[in-house]
Amino acid sequence: MKKSILQSLGPGLLFAGAAIGVSHLVQSTKAGAEFGFGLIWALVLAHLCKYPFFQFGPRYSAATGETLLEGYRKLGKGVLVAYFLINFATMFTIQAAVTIVTASLAVEVFGLTNDLSTWSLVLLSISIIILIIGRYKLLDNLMKYIIITLTISTVIAVFVAFNKSTEGFDVQQIIPSGTIEITFLIAFLGWMPAPLDVSIWHSIWSIEKDKTTLFKTNVDDALFDFNIGYLGTLFVGICFVLLGALVMYGSGEIFSDKGVVFANQLIRLYTENLGSFSTIFIAVAAFTTMFSTTITSLDASPRAMAISSRLLFNKTWKRGYWFWILFLGIGTYIILNYLSESMGVMVKVATVISFLTTPFFAILNYKLITSKHVPEEFRPDTTLRIASLVSIVILIGFSGWFLFSML
């Protein structure tokens, strides 16, 4: 049993690596800086509501040996067409949002130039080369160390910030009001801990891992691996909210929407608590985390598009994955070339879109995992089914609340 658990570890860590990025470094820290401890409820609620639907990704793959995309096709071609169009419409903005944050941190770490377009091109090119040469295997092996490094540094920073704080702690939770605050809340929920279509990525990585190791992961081990990664994203998210609240809340300083300025503020959050000696260490840890997210996204979206294309057109194209990588990279660079100074806007647009599509993916994943396409013994139990239905209602309710507030 011990051996099978160790062998199953992997996709859950990739999920954590993809999730601990913009949602944590940017959105969670901003939540703490602007609302203090007041939005911890939203962070916890997002994890609870999305948990069943993220879990259904590795559950389905372990139970059937297929990705969620094969499952969507069984639900009807129209379902897969809808996913294809949604992913095509959003993947460039999402990749741009992730890349611009990484480029901003690269300016702080490496200097050389402050031009975000140049850094974005360099980062996208390096990412593509890594994927072509190593097919993400190298980064997969390093992911555990990347996550551990950032987690340890974040925990230390929070601990020191608590000890140095002389203010009383107001843990009262806040319900945002007004268009600006509600928009931020929806953006915060949208990528916390990650967009729900990352469940599809997780299912793809699960199948790829089985192919690589020649070992079939069972459902229990797949869920164990997933739960480790998921709990990790919750813990780190809370740490970032606390850090933003302890260091910046009530200080009169707000985070900038300009990438380079924000990156400088973010790194200063750590160094003001840990000391100037830690600047390089923290900057490299934050950059590495975002760079891993950049590559993860650049790897997963093309895989999903290549699989979707194959299923829709019943035709296998060996170079489909590479076509979509290049297509995504070029499209992302074009966006960044014109909007490189609008990091805040890009992040907000990407996260809001992700949140509004969350009920769609939640319903699909629930419908698939409870269908005849999954062996009965691997379907969720009554408690998880009820939790899923309640979560769907909550997610639809939040989407409706946001759209109503925009009127």
Core attributes:
Amino acid/polyamine transporter I, 17 helices, 79% helix, 407 residues
User: Which structural class is indicated by helix and strand composition?
Assistant: mainly alpha
Number of strands: 0
Major sheet details: none
What Rg is obtained from the alpha carbons, in whole angstroms?
A: 20 Å
Q: Label the CATH architecture.
A: Up-down Bundle
The percent range for strand residues is under 5%
Helix residue percentage: over 70%
Shape: globular
> Uncertain runs with pLDDT below 50, 5 residues or more?
1-8
What is the number of independent domains?
Answer: 1
CATH topology type: Amino acid/polyamine transporter I
What is the overall pLDDT average? 81
Helical segment count = 17
Please identify which CATH superfamily we are dealing with: Amino acid/polyamine transporter I
Report how far the terminal alpha carbons are from each other.
55 Å
